[in-house]
Amino acid sequence: MTYRVEERLPGAMVVSIEGRITVENGDGAFVRAIEAVLASRPSQVTVDLRKVTSIDSIGLGELVAGYLRARRAGCRLAVVHANERVLEVLRVTRLSTFLIEYAC
Fold first, then answer.
1. Is 61 within 8 Å of 31 (Cβ atoms)?
2. Does domain 2-99 have CATH number 3.40.50.800?
3. What is the pTM for the complete model shown?
4. Distance between CA atoms of 89 and 70, rounded to whole angstroms?
5. If I label 76, which of 5, 9, 26, 46 is the partner at 20 to 30 A Cα–Cα?
6. What would the pLDDT profile of 46-80 be if each residue is shown by its tens digit?
């Protein structure tokens, strides 16, 4: 898994993830990226999953941990552009109810 962070608008950061978010690379890199982004005190963090090929329970844990850290920091975190495979995992686990932003 690799990621890129960019500021699209003042206070709105985008974290673009590429690859697999799985046990093989579930070393906390995503959570560390979110923590680094939160240090700049954005009001919104968007996690772009368009290039994520798969996600497992470790990856889901990373997404939830990032979401909770953002909430504690007073920031809104939303996931966008999940492919059908990733979206199905988010739906089955009901994480889509609070992670997915459909109006993008």
1. no
2. no
3. 0.88
4. 22
5. 26
6. 999 999 999 999 999 999 999 999 999 999 999 99
